[in-house]
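As a warm-up, study this chain.
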Amino acid sequence: EVEVAGNIYDADALINFAHAKGHGGAGYGGAIKNLALGGVTGRMRGAEHSKEREGGVVAFHEAMADVVKAVLSNKKGKVLHVLWIMDVVEHCDCAPFGMIPLVPDIGIAASKDIVAIDKAGLDLINQAPPIPGSVADTYGLKPGENKFLRIHGVDPYTQVIVAEKAGLGSTQYKLIEF
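Now compare it with the structure written out below.
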């Protein structure tokens, strides 16, 4: 049983506005993580994190996918995911300290497909050149490299693959720039 936040569950439609960033446990925080950990009660969030401690990263990603499925269960065709790919830092926004962005501001993405938007966000971040003076210097990060894997030791692409297998969307996308 998933304890979905009341206002989210009761809403007729949903705009999922998420900030792309790294996450120590999930590797990456975007649209999926935003709903999986932000669209539920604190007790549910704790239960998801316990899956990580008990079963590892894949179990955590599977729990996140299950939760997102429940959060979106009564919103078929009434969800837009917006991903802020600016001020991309290596840790979650809940970290009690400031960070220098990892890459230059990329932009804002929107999609009805939660998996596609997170896959696109990851790809764009990984293609971007790192910002000198950021944590990228510590890891010697380069454009085209899986940045959050190097920083956290967790492959963030596992999250989108698990979500795709759970039926939440597709890792295939078409990027339209304007």
